[in-house]
Design goal:
The chain is an alpha/beta fold and 237 residues long. The protein has 11 helices and 8 strands. It has a single domain, classed as TIM Barrel (Alpha-Beta Barrel). It is globular, with a radius of gyration of 17 Å. Bound molecules: pyridoxine-5'-phosphate. The site of pyridoxine-5'-phosphate (PXP) has 19 residues, from strand 8 and helix 10.
Amino acid sequence: MAQLGVNIDHVATVRQARLTYEPDPVWAAVLAELGGADGITLHLREDRRHIQDRDLRLLRETVTVKLNLELAVAEDVLEIACRVRPDQATLVPERRTEVTTEGGLDLYAAPGKVAQAVQRLQQAGILVSLFLDPDPKQIEAAARLKPDAVELHTGKYATASPGAAQAAELERLRHAAKQVVEHGLILHAGHGLTYRNVQPVARIDRMCELNIGHSIVSRALMVGMQQAVREMKNLIA
Ligand code: PXP
């Protein structure tokens, strides 16, 4: 059964809307753990629009399940990651104007920088995952960098119209997943997954970890974090 990493960024988004102290993503992480989360995921963006350095520091001290830090290939956050040492780092592309991570890493544009980041994080004792579109060429290029895992971007699947378009995106994910596994890499997936669309992705052979944020935090507003996590865990199971 795939493990569930609960992304708590949007708890911090609500807090930053008022630049106050609540709601606290550290509290949310505790409740997510009590609901059965296998990991807590957070994205320390260069613009610090939601998660702050203080959140990462406190989460490192308090989270007892896997702590997964998403970060861009950028000096300041790489330095923080190597110092704070989350259990896992997921390298993602980042653009200041985007609402959320729009696509996977482009390993053609700057493979050297990603390769250096992978090595640096691994030398600090951190598992490294690369966030990629389900594109065979990107996965081929990623395998050469020897990360520990690949997280497949499920955004296109999540936004495809139900029916043939969604089935085609699921097929692309299955194909990419097989390629990831054949390279001996650990298989993760995430982005845009919801209570309605998660199950076909959770069923993909050898799926180890799903990272889900927006949908869980949205449901948590209505039913509470513990219950929202429990419901997602049940669907994945
Ligand atoms: N995985 C990665 C690499 C992400 O960047 C994000 C968004 O921060 C997610 C998973 C979670 O996406 P969502 O909030 O749509 O569930």
